[in-house]
Design brief:
The chain has helices at about 1-15, 20-30, 45-55, 55-70, 100-105, 125-135, 155-170, 180-190, 195-205, 220-235, 255-260, 275-290, 295-305, 310-320, 330-345, 350-360, 365-370, 375-390, 395-405, 410-425, 425-440, and strands at about 30-35, 40-45, 75-80, 145, 175-180, 205-210, 240-245, 265-270. It is an alpha/beta fold. It has four domains: about 1-80, DnaA, N-terminal domain (GMP Synthetase, Chain A, domain 3), CATH 3.30.300; about 110-270, P-loop containing nucleotide triphosphate hydrolases (Rossmann fold), CATH 3.40.50; about 275-345, Helicase, Ruva Protein, domain 3; about 350-440, DnaA protein, C-terminal DNA-binding domain (Chromosomal Replication Initiator Protein Dnaa, Chain: A, Orthogonal Bundle), CATH 1.10.1750.10.
């Protein structure tokens, strides 16, 4: 019970990005060994962890109390040596970052890897180019500019390159950054007078990956800083990888000198996935999530769903409906799912109806859904709305982001993926969402 509470707390910390990677890694090493009405006890493996966390005890108290929704005092203990009852005398701060910590510090997600990047005629050139960059970063195709529509695998490929380069050499300095984050961090550094620290972060790199680089267009000061960052990394022998929803020549309000730099290496266009690639993606996702699915069901889904990002959500939705009824997702279950979708598609349920219903169930104000609040119960309500709008109402990611006043579609992607995963492991949430959909006349 206590361990499940601590695991949920760690997920809360990670989701809300409350702790930096090293801090978070140390938190993952300790155990919640006791919790009363007034305090909670954390047991550390060694003296180094204990001393490190004692310095952050106030912060840990605050975030745990916020998570548990009750003010508790933090107590720290050292793990006892078995049989002697004496405390271990571990070396001071005996902590060494794992390769997962290196990935996290670089901003790379564990779900984006070369091994689960499906390849077909629509992306084989991009895949071959990525392999060349991995072998000779900074030399082959610099910069690598990958463009294409939503859900074609641009982010997956870029992050997978970063992971492979780190796997080959953990000393490589890699950073993955969405274009809007580069903009926000630069503005913040100017306000806080920390531009020197900002430049060191973005220029002292072996590989800089900027996702959705089109977001820097039209902002003169941002483009100026990015131009110098680009030149600095490349002149020092580093590799640049850029992704965008359009080629450099079609990015509006982009400075000519940046456009020229972007076109100076290799520009790759990834096309929407064909039927074969969509089928391969479904098989990979089914394997990752331990979903038993028949090939006929895979073909049925791949024929009906062209959006690559919707494939996983559709598979999970069908699987959630078959749990306890069938041993595998078969063609009959997939066909029934799409028939019911079609039957309910004519119902005129508006996004406002969905927001109002979800807010009523979870006792959240609609205005909180659209603001920047990150409190866990509000954030989860927002993600449930994202899931229903995207997976049930079939709205595009950009439409959902606009309705909920999110900056871009990646936030919606994360929210939908989060709820899709919880539907498999959390039967209570599945019942709640099913109930919401039934009340709206929608089928899950």
């Amino acid at each position: 019970m206590l361990q499940s509470v601590w695991t949920a707390f760690l997920e809360y910390v990670e989701k809300n990005r409350i702790a930096v990677s090293v801090y978070f890694s140390v938190l993952k090493q300790v155990r919640l060994t006791n919790m009363t009405e007034k305090q909670f006890t954390l047991t550390c493996e060694n003296q180094g962890e204990l001393l490190y966390l004692l310095k952050k005890s106030k912060h840990i108290e605050d975030i745990f109390s916020l998570f548990i929704k009750k003010k508790l005092r933090a107590v720290f203990m050292l793990k006892q040596v078995s049989g002697k009852g004496k405390k271990e005398n571990a070396p001071l701060l005996n902590y060494q970052a794992t390769i997962d910590d290196v990935f996290a510090r670089a901003g790379l997600s564990k779900k984006y890897q070369m091994d689960n990047f499906a390849v077909s005629s629509t992306n084989q050139v991009a895949y071959a180019t990525a392999q060349a960059v991995i072998k000779k970063p900074g030399i082959s195709y610099n910069p690598l500019f990958v463009h294409g529509g939503v859900g074609v695998g641009k982010t997956h490929l870029a992050q997978a390159i970063g992971r492979k380069i780190i796997e080959n050499n953990q000393k490589k300095r890699v950073l993955f950054c969405p274009g809007d984050r580069f903009t926000n961090e630069l503005i913040e550094s100017i306000r806080e007078k920390t531009t020197t620290r900002f430049r060191k972060k973005y220029r002292d790199l072996d590989l800089l990956i900027v996702d959705d680089v089109q977001f820097i267009a039209g902002k003169m000061g941002i483009q100026e800083e990015f131009f110098h960052t680009f030149n600095f990394v490349v002149s020092a022998g580093g590799q640049i990888i850029l992704t965008s929803d359009r080629p450099p020549e079609e990015i509006k309000n982009l400075e000519d000198r940046l456009r020229s730099r972007f076109r100076g290496g290799m520009t790759i266009d990834i096309q929407p996935p064909d039927f074969e690639l969509r089928s391969a993606i479904l098989l990979i996702k089914a394997s990752e999530k331990n979903i038993n699915v028949s090939m006929d069901a895979v073909k049925t889904i791949a024929e009906r769903v062209e959006d690559a990002r919707a494939l996983e959500g559709t598979l999970v939705s069908i699987y959630a409906r078959t749990i306890g009824k069938k041993e595998q997702v078969d063609a009959e279950a997939a066909g029934l799912f799409f028939q019911e979708k079609l039957a309910f598609s004519s119902r005129r349920i508006t996004p406002a109806d969905i927001i109002k219903t979800v807010c009523s169930v979870y006792r959240v104000r609609p205005s909180q859904i659209k603001d920047s609040t990150r409190e866990s119960h509000i954030a989860q309500s927002r993600q449930i709305i994202m899931y229903i709008l995207r997976q049930i109402m079939r709205l595009r990611l950009e439409e959902v982001a606009f309705i909920l006043k999110r900056k871009d579609h990646t936030t919606v992607m994360h929210g939908v993926e989060k709820i899709s995963g919880l539907l498999i492991t959390n039967p209570i949430m599945k019942q709640e969402i099913d109930g919401i959909c039934r009340s709206l006349g929608l089928s899950t």
